[in-house]
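Sequence decides. Consider this:

===
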Amino acid sequence: MKKLLLFAIAAVLLVACVAQPGAAVDQPAAAASSEVIETTESAEQRAARLAEEERLAEEARLQAEEEARRQAEEEARRKAEEEAARLAELRARTVYATAQTTLYGDAEMTTPLEIELSPRLPILTTEKIVGEDGAITAYQFEKVGEIEQKGYVGAAVVAQKLADFINRPYENIDYDYFQRRVIAERPPVKVRGIYLTQYTASNPTRLDELIEMANQTDINAFVIDVKDDNGNLLFYSKTAEAVMPELNENVAIADIDSFVKKLKDNNIYLIARIVTFKSPQYAAKYTDRAITRPSGTLYRKADGIAWATPYDRQLWDYVLGICGEAAAVGFDEIQFDYVRFPVVSQADNASLDFHNEKDETKPEVIHKFLRHAYAELADAKVYITADIFGWSGSAWGDEGIGQHWEAMANAVDYVAPMMYPSHYGPGNYGIKYPDTQPAATIDASIKDILRRNANLPTQPINRPWIQDFTASWLGNGRYIAYGAPQVRAQIDALAANGVDEYMVWNSANYYHADAFKNGAE
């Protein structure tokens, strides 16, 4: 029995010994099987798999970058909103010194503070002091200009807002804080520009000459007629196709993309000049919406030019459609010229039909147009400029053409006063014949403009037009020949007043290059 038991145990041990090596052999067999599966992937399949993995990785990277950009933009927007709210709160607490203002150190206002004041000096208040009738009688303040100073001031001797300093404000115009946009994709440029007609722009030889001049001087911008004085267009316009299709038959530049690229390759900042309400072809076609005489016939100036009316909202749409297209092809800025009414006699002004259906004043509708244009072109990411007569900075009213300085300046990024000395009358600024004294004329005019800008919470950037032509039509003794010294004198007069941007006008586009060689940055 014992022998049988020992034999059985021995048999079991023998089987176990035989089974162990067998199990060990199975492992490399499984590995070999795995290798067979992997090697069944073809070269094409492997390439496709790797390409897909690369695509997914790139997609993930782009998504991460987009999310980071979105978060950065959101953070920047949040900070901008916080800053805007902070500034709005400060504006709400600010009053302004007048010629009658006296500051006091005590609430009873018996002890004057010895602080030098000037009109428009901001006073940052902390508390309103109200009388028994509920009216504000005084303010407690904590800062005067840049001076940290606590004290009290009477409410009756301060201005509540800067617009209170405007000599002749108009109704229905927003003179308060105007938020100008910041275009990250288009950092502002200190413009030193020249004007080009469509003829010059389309003439390769002339264009190359002006590009070469720009490359050798301070000139860095071209103001080009996109819609000129006759309404003609620089390039094909889809907007015009629906409103003035005949204008597309004779555009100046057929290949606008190549034209823009050439100028951009030479670092030329592009400004689209848009002649706005002097639109003779439009007026002739849409007479029912133009300025007309009582008989219904078109009103024409002595030069035979018919004018559209600024009250025509359909004209607004037409003009802004062209502006949007100019931005789309690469122009950096839109400049509205003739953004006004024509100069007419008092008799004509009383009898002409301007089609004023909303009963708006002239400065009111010009202001509304510019504000509307500013809003409509926001997505186009272009800056907005308005040309305005230089003497508008010295005239209190709109002079019958709708150009009131503060009303226009508070609606655009840049104001472009046309400060040609030849355009000022005998005796202006105490100068017998202004054209003969370009530096003195520019100096006097820009000083008035800067004073007018001070009436606005957000002051526009001044970029004046100056003269590079000889105004012989003024008559003997009333003009001088203009060359490089006279042009340079205007530039230097602006610079002496802190204005370092300018644009130069010559209707034939011939310029004195030596006037612009000053090594501007």
Summary: The chain has 13 helices and 15 strands.
